[in-house]
TrEMBL record:
Residues 22-113 form the Chorismate mutase domain. It holds the Pfam family CM_2. NCBIfam families: CM_mono_cladeE (TIGR01795), PRK09239.1 (NF006691). InterPro entries: Chorismate_II_sf (IPR036263), Chorismate_mutase-related (IPR051331), CM_bact (IPR010951), CM_dom_sf (IPR036979), CM_II_prokaryot (IPR002701). SMART domains: CM_2. The keyword Zinc does not apply. This is Chorismate mutase. Keywords: Isomerase.
Amino acid sequence: MSAETPAAAAPTGSDAAVDERDAAMTELLGIRSSIDNIDAALIHLLAERFKFTQQVGRLKARHGLPPSDTDREKRQIARLRSLAEDAHLDPAFAEKWFNFVVAEVIQHHEELASGTERP
Ligand SMILES: O=C(O)C(=O)C[C@]1(C(=O)O)C=C[C@@H](O)C=C1
């Protein structure tokens, strides 16, 4: 059987169809378990990233440096878009993700600079 021609489903309600549905559910649970692991890893990676950006924010606040650095952002976006392409991930999505995270980071930087950061 080729990837282009999936097997026809057994007639609805037949024993074969029930077996196929059970097998599909087992496969789905296995795939979801891998998705769970990846989501957990992403949360841990994001937490680590925010620990480092908090360090940057404190450094910038201490020395009166501006919260954002658009040149750095541009370079990082170009780098991430290229990495995304190599990884067959939509580069526009990679850029959107980066901008989303950076907006949050800049808000944290601003709070640190103004002394209104959350505990
Ligand atoms: O590298 C910095 O200067 C940061 O503040 C970190 C960071 C980022 O999260 O990547 C956030 C804001 C800046 O505009 C650029 C990059």
